[in-house]
Amino acid sequence: MANIDVRLLKYFIAVAETGHLTHAAERLGIAQPPLSQQIRQLETQLGVSLFRRLPRGMALTDAGDAFLSDARAIVMRLDRAIDDVRLVGLGQRGRLTVGFTSSAALHPFVPMVIRAFRQETPAVALLLEEADTSELLDGLLAERLDAAFIRHPLGDVAGIATAPVLVEPMVLAVPKRHRLARGRGRVALSELANEAMILYRRRSGQGLYDAIIAACHGAGFSPNIEQEAPRLLSTLSLVAAELGVSIVPASLMRMKVDGIVYRHLQPDTAPVAPLHLAYREGERSGAALRLLAHVRATVAQTSDRVA
């Protein structure tokens, strides 16, 4: 049976359902003589007669009748398997694991894209995982992840490509009773020269950390880093506890944390927080490629996209 061409099964089914070689040939779009030869070839391979040849048609033998349901099931399963693999290749079915940093997840772009992708491809099993940038890149290289939303790429990582998504400003987070909590204008970064600062630890967010340090140096001072927090939300908790001030992506202003006031920084020296989608170079996963295309299309429609 393993050597039987599936076309022979389809020919057999057509003749069985029409009861006539001519009608079956018309349905299949082939000539009658080759169809007759294919039916005889199938009977030879099986070692049984599937049809009784009548003056005006073809009738199934007992063996043919018994074989018909199995032949239909085999063809149906094969057709379904072909459809499934095509849908997987097109990214309309399968599995997709997407990672994100905690700061990336708080920007509205990320849940918007994930929500739209899920609505457009409901047959794709979508799994989400939060981790720091280095862990996400390791996950991509180990193929545990298919894509990841990260902030600053950590230089050139072999095998990893990134697609720019957007750039958002960073803002100052200060305790409610802090002197810089008052006022409505923008704060100069140099005003933080003597402040105790709380930063998202470098190991978890090297890009954001380095951008803040570079901006402070550009403003003429080295920051006094009082503490480093493992998560951005932990950073805000420490600021609310009046242990220092911090600089965070502007999207965190959506987090209404009691005891914190957000102030905009003067743009000439303020650091920025870009957002990228990281993926494997030469990616062939249909779902991952579909997500990448969806992200790029969404970026093209936004006003704050990266050129």
TrEMBL record:
Keywords: DNA-binding, Transcription, Transcription regulation. GO terms for cellular component: protein-DNA complex. One of its GO terms (molecular function) is DNA-binding transcription factor activity. Residues 4-61 form the HTH lysR-type domain. Pfam families: HTH_1, LysR_substrate. Transmembrane segments: none annotated. InterPro entries: BudR_PBP2, LysR_HTH_N, LysR_subst-bd, WH-like_DNA-bd_sf, WH_DNA-bd_sf. Belongs to the LysR transcriptional regulatory family. PANTHER family: SMALL NEUTRAL PROTEASE REGULATORY PROTEIN, TRANSCRIPTIONAL DUAL REGULATOR HCAR-RELATED. This is HTH-type transcriptional regulator BenM. The lineage of its organism: Bacteria, Pseudomonadati, Pseudomonadota, Betaproteobacteria, Burkholderiales. The gene is benM_1.
